[in-house]
Specification:
Elements: E1 19-20, H1 34-42, H2 45-53, H3 59-67, H4 74-86, H5 90-98, H6 111-128, E2 132-133, H7 144-155, H8 160-182
Parallel strand pairs: 1-2
Length: 183
């Protein structure tokens, strides 16, 4: 049996638990648009927060970034995003985790991949009580599934507080990548 492509974007209906793997970045990303950043800087606060919540579902993080506008360039916005993400509380992290969507495994994905993800995620969620998140930026598309499985398995050995720190960093990386992709 051949293995299909592993992970494009956003739903895993096959899994009983939840697993968050971001959509893979496109190979040719367009350069940042000064017009998009200018529009974000001048948008009404509720529109800016809605844009930010699509990158990371934390109201505190989105308010902080909205309140510190305008940003002179994308690097300044990304730096502010990182700083705000470092200050997320346990409640903020739970809110962000609850807002994550699920990627899709194509119908032709090798059935063993579904079973391996089911088992790994069930063990992870039983241990930590929340979804598994991992940033796959820079990982070759055909290596993402292995990267995710290895990540779950290695992080199962973490203590809960140690895993909270890892989850916070993964969410920060996801937000950064999504922001960069948006602007």
């Amino acid at each position: 049996m051949t293995r299909g492509s592993t992970l494009p974007a956003h739903r895993l209906p096959h899994l009983p638990g939840r697993l968050v793997i971001p959509a893979l970045p496109e190979q040719s990303r367009t350069p940042p648009s000064p017009q998009a950043l200018a529009a974000f800087n001048s948008a009404p606060p509720e529109d800016a927060r809605r844009t930010l919540l699509a990158c990371l579902h934390s109201h505190r993080w989105s308010r902080r970034l909205t309140d510190h506008r305008p940003y002179p360039d994308l690097d300044a916005l990304l730096a502010a995003s990182d700083e705000a993400a470092y200050d997320l509380t346990a409640g903020d992290l739970a809110e962000a985790l609850a807002g994550e969507s699920l990627p899709v495994l194509p119908d032709d994905t090798y059935e063993a991949a579904h079973m391996a993800l089911d088992a790994a995620h069930a063990a992870y969620e039983a241990r930590f009580g929340h979804v598994f998140v991992i940033c796959a930026d820079g990982i070759a598309p055909d290596e993402v599934l292995d990267h995710v499985l290895a990540g779950i398995r290695s992080r199962l050995a973490n203590e809960p507080e140690e895993e909270r720190v890892v989850v916070a960093e993964e969410l920060r990386l996801l937000a950064r990548g999504r922001l960069a992709g948006h602007f």
